[in-house]
Amino acid sequence: MSSGRISMMWPTYIGEFNNPEHNSIKEGILKFFQEYKNNNENNRSAGTVISPKDKTNRENFEIDKDVFISGGNLHLKNNEPYQQLMKFISQSIIATSIGANDSERENFKYDKNKLTSTITDSWFIDYKNEGSLVLPHVHVGCSWCCVYYMQIEDNINSESGSTFFQNIRPPKQTNDFGSAYNNKRTLKIRPIEGKLLVWPHYLMHGSIPYTGNKNRIIISANAIVNLNE
User: Fold this and answer.
1) pLDDT, the chain, mean
2) CA separation (Å) from 207 to 104, 181, 200?
């Protein structure tokens, strides 16, 4: 057999980061969220986030109290613990972006110190233990998306409240050995307090129904990364 080459093209990048400052900012952020809930209406709109109590008829969508979604401008609020978290998220998004570019653009020369991450949207979702979930969806108007686990019950099973990502390749057409590599259709990542996941905007994702006793509270954000010359 003659020599050849096998290239891996267009991989999908998912960053996983643990925030060492989580315990020091948790109380302040949860207090910030409670004050927000006391002074703002639930921002639920189209049905991407659902629960067993939802009425999902398009013309008669009922908002209930077992899931609360904030507006998408929390990164503009003057709350110090939340701003600390936004800094951690921005740094993690830059790290993921560097990893992606260094992997796919070998001759791409740039100064990593001149990279800046701009958060375009950020919001929180507070789920009660009613089996609430997020349907598969993608984000637009950004390059990277993320989810941060602000509060989650300890010792829940690996499925409850997990974030899942769907395979971006078309389903396999045959069951032969040649298609075996394309057998896995989803990746599930167990939620852990203080953990951040970062992924490209086009990746279809959602969450497994949550059944823990403590409210599952997550923060989501969208961002773009610029190189400042």
Assistant:
1) 88
2) 29, 24, 17
